Amino acid sequence: MFGPEGGGHPRGASGAFLEICDRAGIRLRTPERLESMCCGTPWKSKGMTAGWEHMRGLVVPALTEATEGGRLPVIVDASSCTEGLDIMLRSTSGPDGLRVVDAIGFAAGLLTRLEVSARIPSVALHPTCSSTIAGTTPQLVAIAEHIADEVFIPADAGCCGFAGDRGLLHPELTASATAPEAAGIDAAERTRGERFTEYASSNRTCEIGLTRSTGRPYRHILELLAEATKP
């Protein structure tokens, strides 16, 4: 839905994830009609239950078929969508074992198969609300530490306030929510005497919000992992 940050991977996080899995020897499949589906959060978060039920009616059968009834995990390349899809599947009487895995958690398990060919001097990270709730922030950090010499998380890193599409309609929300974190980035870079080499998160809307707030180009951590492990 959203293009990558300028200068990033031409296909964004999804393209980067495909490259990573190919290098690690992992075969993937995608559901039919994927372009017509989403995790349902844009409807559910606004109380639009009819839209959410319609989307659930599309997504659950497609994932059941694609995963061979739950034999394969469902990998999602945006942390907030991972959370939304997990809620959708847990509310459905579907096949036992149909499970959702965040791509950063999955990619962290592949690190031993991925040789770093171009280390990054420094990375500033923004853990998302969803990665914090799901407990996958340590995997986000592990990926960053695998490819970078220095990893920094501002002490005031918190919710970016984007809230799905709210940040598109009310950018003042993200500006207010991220002001302390932006100040932490500024302070750290003044102390260092230079900017961080890269800025990363694990959800595109969060990256948009942080880019606006800090003036730094936030990208998905999977893009950085794909670039750092190119043969």
Structure explained in plain terms:
The protein folds into 2 domains: 23-106, no CATH class; 120-228, Rossmann fold, CATH 3.40.50. Strand 5 (198-201), helix 10 (204-214) and strand 6 (218-220) form a beta-alpha-beta unit. The longest helix has 22 residues, at 171-192. It is built from 11 helices and 6 strands. The chain is of the alpha/beta class.
In a few lines, what is going on in this structure?
The protein has 231 residues and is α/β, with parallel strands linked by helices.
Topology:
Blueprint: H1 12-23, H2 41-44, H3 49-66, E1 74-76, H4 79-90, E2 100-102, H5 103-108, E3 120-125, H6 129-134, H7 137-147, E4 148-152, H8 166-169, H9 171-192, E5 198-201, H10 204-214, E6 218-220, H11 221-228
Parallel strand pairs: 1-2, 3-4, 3-5, 5-6
Helix pairs in contact: 1-11, 7-11, 9-10
Protein traits:
single chain, 231 residues, alpha/beta, Rossmann fold, 2 domains, four-stranded parallel beta sheet, two-stranded parallel sheet, 11 helices, 6 strands, 49% helix, 10% strand
